[in-house]
């Protein structure tokens, strides 16, 4: 069974031959292992089943010069946001989603990895604005000038609606929406605000992906247990990563909605994988499989595993995953 067949079975809620997986590490460590183990080491050396792929659409380039970013080689973050508030985006130019070059990277990934599943990441309209305005100002705009915010969200969503069609034509296996809406303490805003500013603009995109035969996954860090019914209501098929360090309980998830939502994630990248013993790493993977994977609803994955993670822990994680057979 190829990796793509294995993942597609899970996406259809069928049993594969073994547990499919993917993982991420701090970027400096991935670059190091690419040099040591070969390019695309996660796939070529360890046999990871999923390749995450990205479109090239860039929003609001006219404001980009105002941004200030920091990068420590492991990750990057924004310290000055390019746009003052949502009102500043009135009259801003939006990209043409029919531009073929925007999807060249996805087409290249499909050609490069024909036997792997491709998950095409699409940042949500709300998270695109987070990146332009910053979270603090965006919360002010939600209260003080929601009409400007909703106009920008609607226009972004129209671009991404066409983008989903082009992405589907690149022979991907799932659309993977990404937008952090939770902290380790729960949702960043009320349910009514989530409906209005996050899931509302996404509804047509989710429906279009389903019409095109693609399952839809959603990424958010943080504690998501209280939002599981909302994900299911809006047609999300699976969530990532079900962050262990944020207090998400895999057993409670399985009881609540394993029949409605699959998990692309579950691996504790914060503590057990980098800091545990080899025995603890193996036990963690076995417990994850026994709790979430018995019925085929799991694609094991992690958020960024820290650079200092011992190689023996990484090797134990992958080896234990590959031993989880159906």
Morphology call: globular
Stated plainly, the CATH topology is called: TIM Barrel
**Structural class by SSE content:** alpha/beta
The top level CATH class name? Alpha Beta
Alpha plus pi helix count: 13
> What is the string of helix and strand elements?
HEHHEEEHEHHHEEEHEHEHEHHEEH
| Second-tier CATH architecture | Alpha-Beta Barrel
What do these coordinates show?
- By secondary structure, the protein is α/β, with parallel strands linked by helices.
- It has one domain: TIM Barrel.
- The protein is built from 13 helices and 13 strands.
- It has a 7-stranded parallel beta sheet. It has a two-stranded parallel sheet with strand order 1-13.
- Helix 5 crosses helix 7, helix 6 crosses helix 7 and helix 12 runs parallel beside helix 13.
- It is globular.
- The mean pLDDT is 97.
Keywords:
44% helix, two-stranded parallel sheet, seven-stranded parallel sheet, TIM Barrel, globular, alpha/beta, 15% strand
């Amino acid at each position: 069974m190829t990796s793509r067949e294995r993942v597609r079975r899970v996406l259809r809620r069928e049993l594969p031959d073994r547990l499919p997986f993917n993982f991420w590490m701090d970027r400096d460590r991935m670059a190091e292992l690419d040099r040591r183990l070969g390019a695309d080491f996660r796939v070529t050396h360890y046999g990871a089943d999923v390749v995450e792929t990205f479109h090239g659409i860039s929003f609001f380039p006219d404001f980009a010069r105002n941004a200030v970013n920091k990068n420590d080689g492991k990750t990057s973050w924004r310290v000055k946001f390019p746009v003052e508030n949502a009102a500043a985006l009135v009259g801003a130019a939006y990209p043409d989603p029919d531009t073929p070059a925007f999807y060249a990277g996805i087409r290249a990934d499909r050609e490069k990895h024909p036997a792997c599943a491709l998950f095409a990441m699409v940042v949500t309209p709300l998270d695109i604005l987070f990146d332009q305005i910053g979270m603090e100002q965006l919360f002010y705009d939600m209260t003080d000038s929601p009409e400007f915010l909703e106009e920008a969200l609607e226009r972004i969503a129209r671009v991404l609606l066409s983008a989903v069609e082009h992405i589907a034509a690149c022979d991907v296996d799932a659309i993977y929406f990404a937008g952090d809406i939770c902290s380790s303490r729960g949702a960043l805003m009320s349910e009514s605000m989530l409906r209005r500013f996050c899931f509302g603009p996404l509804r047509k995109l989710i429906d279009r992906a389903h019409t095109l035969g693609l399952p839809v996954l959603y990424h958010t860090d943080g504690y998501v247990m209280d939002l599981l019914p909302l994900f299911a209501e809006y047609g999300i098929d699976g969530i990532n990563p079900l962050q262990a360090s944020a207090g998400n309980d895999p057993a409670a998830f399985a009881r609540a909605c394993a029949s409605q939502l699959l998990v692309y994630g579950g691996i504790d990248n914060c503590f057990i994988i980098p800091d545990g013993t080899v025995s603890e790493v193996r036990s963690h993977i076995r417990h994850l499989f026994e709790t979430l994977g018995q019925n085929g609803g799991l694609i094991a994955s992690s958020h960024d595993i820290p650079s200092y993670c011992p190689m023996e822990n990484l090797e134990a994680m992958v080896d234990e995953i590959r031993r989880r057979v159906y």
